[in-house]
Amino acid sequence: MRRALALGVAALLLVLLTACTRDTSGVLVIGHRGAPNEEVENTIASFERARALGADGIELDVQLTADGRLVVMHDPTLDRTTICQGSVRGRTLQDLAACPLLNGEPVRTLEEVLGLITPWFSLVFVEIKVDELVAQVERADEAARILLALGVTERVVVISYDETVLRRLAERRSEGIRAGWDDFTNLAISKAARYGLDWVLMRLDGIEGREGTIVNGLDKRLCVYGINTPAHFVKASKAGVDVMMTDSVRTIMTLLGRRPAPPAAIDGGIAEGGP
What we know:
275 residues, globular, TIM Barrel
């Protein structure tokens, strides 16, 4: 029975992949918060895992601390991914030293994380989270400062769903800062065009079918997130998406016919105990 089930799954994958007649050799795979299905999200271990699985890039999120530092964390609170509770915004970077992540890693600054991982990937998305409508310009300027100081503007794209943040980033385009509008629907295309942003980011369920062609015609790049299953992969491919963001790097690499490295192949060894 187990063999029959395996054959059935293989047959389904074959049907789905056959439906994708488009050449996918140039598709970039982006690990959403690294490889969150296998490691704690937004940690060095998660980014290392995505790297070992063959991801071309990763996406990470940043929140602002009480003393104006950007730290790598998705939620506005510490409750879900650290041993502490309460808001990130209510603590200084020094306070956060007492709040390790669930895998034991420290909460790291954006500067520290980019310094470690940028050489591993061809593309890194940094999403500026704005859960309270405060300090948007401060967040954008701090991200730009870090990218320029590290010299990583060619590999890093700053994204957000906050209009104030994106307007500020657009103003700094002449310095080499690249930015992208993140939206659930294809309104992201018109918004990116309006502000002269380089990237459009959309959720898969907002895709209607021709977004890849439209965005390419505007001389911009499209990245679609939420591509986690064979059916998602087929839909994105048919829409002309060539940058796919996923929670399951292993699945998408397999669908692309790219052999992931086994878990033991992760190298670097900097996650545990970290710098």
